[in-house]
Every structure is written in structure tokens, then in C-alpha cells.
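queue> pop job 88
queue> type: inverse folding (structure -> sequence)
queue> payload:
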């Protein structure tokens, strides 16, 4: 793309609007936002899309997305791993999925100031975080999921746990808006923070190769649980493992190499958080090679074959990631001045 900085705001706003239109026309009447027409919807990507809608000023559509979550929450506070046409499709219950509503609602509040809506959705948020904390271990880490029978899978994911920490911090702030005190959420966040920073062996140890996924590399930085010098060193140490010059961020280290729009955009946001703006801007320029003629983005591309994969797939969550990443590059020239992932200490 290689746009001059002075040209960027108007061009970026146009690209953002194209993504918003795509997400909007894919959203079901129920409020659910599937990956694409006739595809599945999962709570995490659904919320990513709701955040993007809010960033684009489509607040009522975002509210409908959050209402859908409220209507489809399980009695224990969880959501199923995925849905198709509003019916459960995968009966796993993910701890990160169940707390992530807090981040979406925090952004909704920042962009709208609508405390009344936060109060309406509060029971779903409170119950969702309750389910998640029911899987936290004495050493601080949070097991990633329960199966349909309620059995916990004894392993903690670093990327998901970083998101859970961010969700807890957002949850505490939302509770404060409503005059509620949640010292147990504060304590849980502190224990998780210590675990991530002081006992990395507690995470990704149950599955071979998890450390070779890009999300395990940059998510602690993206969520803000690893900061400052340590964050910059973390990114620098494995940059060459995950980034292909001219293309973007790989999903994982091992071949076949698969550069994805979502991972690249999330890395852009992580870089922006730690002040690596030149690198972030370069990555954004690269992803425009993965933009289709309709303005939307493919999931990713196989390298070195340069083959779009999966063929024909343009997920809403890739568009949402693009919206969030581009918003970080507007340098305060957008109307909201809000950046993805609030700088929560």
C-alpha cells in the first residue's frame, strides 16, 4: 500500500467502512455474527466483530451481538465453543470465551458511555467470569476448557490466559462503573499475572508445539500482561521465527508456512502497544496483498506457494482484526480517539 502518512486517514477510513459493511451484512437477525454466510459463530470471534462494529460507530448492531450472548449463555455462565444457525455445534466450554465479554463491553462503554446497557448485560458478564474463575488453579493459571460433562482439560494456554487477565481487569473497571466491588476478580487477576510472568512453565506444557504458535508469542504483549523492556525483548527474540518479510506473521513456526491476516493484525496491535510503530506500519502495508477485489480480506496465504488458503474464505473476524489494527494507525485522527485493548495497568 505504501501510503503517505498525510493520505492515510481518509483511505484507512474507507477500508474500515468496507469491513464494517461486511460484518454487518453477515450478522444474523438474532445478533450472532458467524465467520461467514452459513458458517459457525464462536463467542470469541463474535465479540471481536462486535468490538469492530463499535469502533465503526455501529453501536446498535454491537448491542444486538451482546444481547445474543446474554440469551444464549449456559446456566453455569459458559458458552459453547461454537454455534451454527444459533444452535450449539461444539460442546466444549472455553474459559477464555466465557470471560472475553468483559473486554467487548469495556470498549462499548468507552465508545458510547452507555452505562445502562452495561447494567443490562452485567448478569451475563458476572456469570461468565464466574465460570472462568472456577477453572483457576491455586498457582494462578486457568485451565482452558471443560467438556460437555463438566470435566476440565488440565492445561492452561498462554494466549488465552493473557486474554483472561485482560478480561478480569476490564471486568473490575465495569464493576466500578456500576458501584460494585469485585476484590476476588482483582485477586484472581493478580495471581494470573504472577503466574504468567514468573512461572511460564505452567502454560502450554500439556500440548506439544503450543510454544511454536504465534499467539503464544505476542499475546502476553498484546494483552498488556508483559510490558516495557521485557515486552520488547519478547517480540525481538522470536521475530525471525514468525515474520516473513513482505508478507506478515505466520500462524506457527513449522511448515507449511501459513501467513494469516488476523495474526498479522494482532501483532500490529502488540507492536503499537510497545511503541514499535514503524514495524507495525510495515506489517499493515504487507497485509494489503491479502485483500480481495471486494475490499475484504482472505484468511491467509501459504508460503512459498503464494496460495490463498483456505480457498475462498474471508472470515468476519479477519475483517474485525483489520479494523482494530487500522484504528491503531490513525494517530488520533479518528473520531473516537480510542485504541484497541485499553491500556489497563
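queue> result:
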Amino acid at each position: 500500500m505504501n501510503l503517505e502518512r498525510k493520505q492515510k486517514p481518509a483511505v484507512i477510513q474507507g477500508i474500515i467502512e468496507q469491513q464494517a459493511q461486511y460484518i454487518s451484512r453477515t450478522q444474523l437477525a438474532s445478533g450472532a455474527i458467524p465467520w461467514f454466510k452459513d458458517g459457525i459463530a464462536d463467542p470469541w470471534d463474535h465479540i471481536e466483530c462486535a468490538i469492530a462494529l463499535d469502533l465503526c460507530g455501529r453501536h446498535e448492531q454491537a448491542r444486538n451481538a451482546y444481547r445474543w450472548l446474554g440469551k444464549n449463555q449456559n446456566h453455569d455462565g459458559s458458552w459453547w465453543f461454537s454455534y451454527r444457525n444459533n444452535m450449539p455445534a461444539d460442546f466444549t466450554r472455553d474459559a477464555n470465551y466465557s470471560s472475553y465479554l468483559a473486554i467487548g463491553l469495556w470498549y462499548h462503554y468507552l465508545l458510547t458511555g452507555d452505562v445502562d446497557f452495561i447494567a443490562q448485560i452485567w448478569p451475563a458478564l458476572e456469570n461468565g467470569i464466574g465460570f472462568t474463575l472456577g477453572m483457576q488453579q491455586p498457582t494462578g493459571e486457568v485451565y482452558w476448557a471443560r467438556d460437555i460433562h463438566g470435566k476440565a482439560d488440565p492445561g492452561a494456554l498462554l494466549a488465552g490466559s493473557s486474554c483472561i487477565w485482560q478480561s478480569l481487569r476490564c471486568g473490575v473497571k465495569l464493576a466500578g462503573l456500576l458501584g460494585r466491588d469485585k476484590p476476588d476478580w482483582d485477586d484472581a487477576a493478580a495471581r494470573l499475572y504472577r503466574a504468567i510472568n514468573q512461572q511460564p512453565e505452567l502454560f502450554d506444557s500439556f500440548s506439544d508445539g503450543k510454544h511454536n504458535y504465534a499467539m503464544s508469542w505476542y499475546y502476553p504483549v498484546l494483552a498488556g500482561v508483559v510490558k516495557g523492556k521485557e515486552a520488547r525483548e519478547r517480540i525481538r527474540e522470536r521475530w525471525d521465527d514468525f515474520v516473513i518479510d513482505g508478507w506478515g506473521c505466520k500462524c506457527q513456526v513449522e511448515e507449511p508456512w501459513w501467513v494469516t491476516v488476523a495474526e498479522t493484525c494482532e501483532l500490529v496491535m502488540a507492536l503499537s502497544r510497545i511503541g514499535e510503530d514503524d514495524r507495525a506500519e510495515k506489517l499493515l502495508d504487507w497485509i494489503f496483498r491479502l485483500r480481495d477485489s471486494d475490499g475484504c480480506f482472505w484468511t491467509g496465504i501459504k508460503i512459498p506457494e503464494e496460495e490463498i488458503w483456505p480457498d475462498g474464505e474471508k472470515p468476519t473476524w479477519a475483517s474485525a482484526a483489520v479494523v482494530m489494527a487500522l484504528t491503531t494507525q490513525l494517530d488520533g485522527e479518528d473520531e473516537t480517539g480510542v485504541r484497541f485493548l485499553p491500556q489497563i495497568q
